[in-house]
Write a structure and sequence with these properties.
single chain, Glutamine Phosphoribosylpyrophosphate, subunit 1, domain 1, Rossmann fold, 3 domains, eight-stranded antiparallel beta sheet, globular, binds 6-O-phosphono-alpha-D-glucopyranose
């Protein structure tokens, strides 16, 4: 949550910082600001989206080759300009941008106020600028002042600090909130997410918790809160630059929906061995022996990743014969989960930074479980915290509502299920071959769903005035119903509920009348007839029905509107049925004049608990 960019080098900093902020806007868009060092610290901030800051900057002509910038998702303090970052100290000699939460900020603020500091915002972050100023007034040099300040705070931070009197130098520190340093030629970049800087450099170094870096145009000096001389770990990211831009599409959400055939291709590349009939997952090979011994898997995730985990539960139980539970990461550590050395805890996360999911992994490690990650963002905190794992290779996902990452998560979970089933001698070869062949043809089938976008547009147009919608599905389709409802509500603000069809008669049916449509997932799978009975029950209450099915002959007696997707094996069918739901949500948002990439109050990466 919130996006950070820093630059030091030989270019004008302001355009570089603004370019980076635009890439990070999906992380929060309540306010934004920049601070440039040019003998003094000049700060320009604005409430609202980055476009508002752009307008303001046009009047300022900020000159200077080092600076910091931030786009905010409000936690402490309303989204107004005075609460926008960068925040400064009293004398204007220090400015900071901060992600995370300083939990003891109230007591620190009180203490500092008592010592004469005057605060200008309601944020927790501002205390960092004053703390650093205070330590410098006590005679400490910049790095030591930052260290001493961080020793006083409780909570999480991804922090970048700039000083009036230290030209061409930035300091950055991390505790629980990601930061990456990009290495250029005579220049360096800092960002909370590599997508802000990959157009400039792919050589990066991710900071670890407790580390502090002094970054100048000449080089990087790395140390930790409690020690000097931390070794550099430079890695090369192989993301394509264009994957983080919208291309010809009106929104990232649409672009990300439309590129799903390619995303699946990338997620299965080199992993589907059709000749040998095997799933190849090198990232799990190191823990093969432990995977043979486990007796239970707990999948943890939040939002769409949690729903992908629910599909994973069906997949792994069916194909690998291992008992699976799926837990909301935000609840996992507040229970007393029964975790042993024979439990594998699998974190599913697009960003690899979701605070609750990361904390669940920390808890699992504490209990000596085998920890695994299914993560999209290379080098992210969860990817690095887990014992082993598999990357999605879905490319950066920018739309706040997860689409391509969700589809990729289900794709890779089916590979993990095959891998585990084979490793443990559970999965018959013929079944393994069937799943692998199904995955191999999946990009083509997804292409077909997308080519039929017109049928979804017509439905979206017809129901554009709806105020409520019920999503129903059973077995493999139940999590897709939950995901469909989440997509619709988050981007279009239409009230939507996702239910397992079997539960419909235990409450939701009371809502149904002629103004309350239901979107029912009813591919011809092992529960098709039961789902059709549920449709009849809804129709008997005059509820309009939109059926998402594989059955070309589904009569309009059963459903008012039918969206047809190609048929595949039951375990892989969710990959196809979710796509019309993504499109319905997208179309509904656009029809209501909303920006589906930046739904109100949401942020892509939820790095606070
Ligand atoms: C936020 C995003 C969702 C995402 C969820 C989990 O709520 O808006 O799209 O599913 O976080 O994020 P993760 O990065 O852990 O998959």
């Amino acid at each position: 949550m919130c996006g950070i960019v820093g630059y030091v080098g030989n270019k004008q900093a302001a355009p570089v910082l603004m370019g980076g902020l635009r890439k990070l806007e999906y992380r929060g868009y309540d306010s934004a600001g920049v601070c440039i060092q040019n003998g003094r610290l000049t700060t320009v901030r604005s409430e609202g989206k980055i476009a508002a800051l752009d307008l303001k900057l046009a009047k300022h002509h900020l000159q200077g080759t080092s600076g910091i910038a931030h786009t905010r998702w409000a936690t402490h303090g309303v989204p107004e300009e005075r609460n926008a970052h960068p925040h400064r100290d009293c004398s204007g000699s220090v400015a900071v941008v901060h992600n995370g939460i300083i939990e003891n900020f109230l007591e620190l603020r009180e203490e500092l106020t008592g010592k004469g500091h005057i605060f200008h915002s309601d944020t927790d972050s501002e205390v960092l600028a004053h703390l650093i100023e205070h330590e410098m007034e006590a005679g400490l040099p910049a790095l030591q002042a930052i260290r001493a300040s961080l020793a006083c705070v409780r909570g999480t931070y991804g922090l970048v600090v700039i000083f009036k009197d230290l030209p061409q130098t930035l300091f950055t520190a991390r505790m629980g909130s990601p930061l990456v340093i990009g290495i250029g030629d005579g220049e360096h970049y800092i960002a909370s997410d590599p997508s802000a800087i990959i157009e400039h450099t792919r050589d990066v170094m991710f900071l670890d918790d407790g580390e502090i870096a002094c970054v100048s145009s000449e080089g990087i000096t790395l140390c930790a809160l409690d020690r000097e001389d931390v070794p550099h770990r430079i890695q090369h990211l192989d993301w394509e630059v264009e994957t983080a831009s919208r291309g010809e599409h009106a929104h990232f959400m649409l672009k990300e929906i439309m590129e799903q055939p390619q995303v699946i291709e990338n997620s299965i590349r080199g992993r589907v061995d059709l000749i040998g009939g095997r799933a190849v997952l090198g990232g799990l090979d190191d823990v093969r022996d432990r995977l043979k011994e486990i007796d239970r898997i707990v999948i943890v995730g939040c939002g769409s990743a949690y729903y992908a985990g629910l599909v994973g539960e069906y997949l792994i139980e069916e194909l690998a014969g291992i008992s699976v539970e799926v837990e909301l990461a935000s609840e996992f550590r507040y229970r007393k989960p029964i975790i042993t050395e024979r439990t594998a805890v699998l974190a599913v996360s697009q960003s690899g930074e979701t605070a609750d999911t990361l904390e669940a992994i920390v808890e699992a490690k504490r209990k000596r479980a085998l920890t695994l990650g299914l993560v999209n963002t290379v080098g992210s905190s969860i990817a690095r915290a887990t014992d082993a794992g598999v990357y999605n290779h879905a490319g950066p996902e920018i739309g706040v509502a997860s689409t391509k990452a969700f589809v990729s998560q289900m794709t890779v979970l089916s590979l993990i299920a095959v891998y585990l089933g084979q490793l443990r001698g559970f999965l018959p070869e013929s079944k393994a071959r069937e799943v692998l062949a199904g995955l191999h043809e999946m990009p083509e089938l997804v292409e077909k769903v997308l080519a039929n976008r017109g049928q979804v547009t017509r439905v979206a147009e017809k129901y554009r005035g709806m105020e409520n919608c019920l999503f129903l599905g059973r077995k493999y389709q139940a999590p897709i119903a939950y995901e469909g409802a989440l997509k619709l509500k988050e981007v279009s603000y239409i009230h939507a509920e996702g239910y397992s069809s079997g539960e419909m008669k235990h409450g939701p049916i009371a809502l149904i009348d002629k103004s309350f449509p239901s979107i029912v997932l009813c591919p011809q799978d092992s529960v098709y007839e039961k789902t059709c009975s549920n449709i009849s029950e809804l129709r008997a209450r005059k509820g309009p029905i939109i059926a998402v099915t594989t059955c070309g002959s589904m009569s309009h007696v059963q459903a008012d509107d039918v969206i047809i997707v190609p048929h595949t094996m039951e375990a892989l069918q969710p990959i196809l049925t979710v796509i019309p739901l993504q499109l319905i949500a997208y179309e509904a948002a656009v029809a209501r004049g909303l920006d589906p990439d930046k739904p109100r109050n949401l942020a892509k990466s939820v790095t606070v608990e």
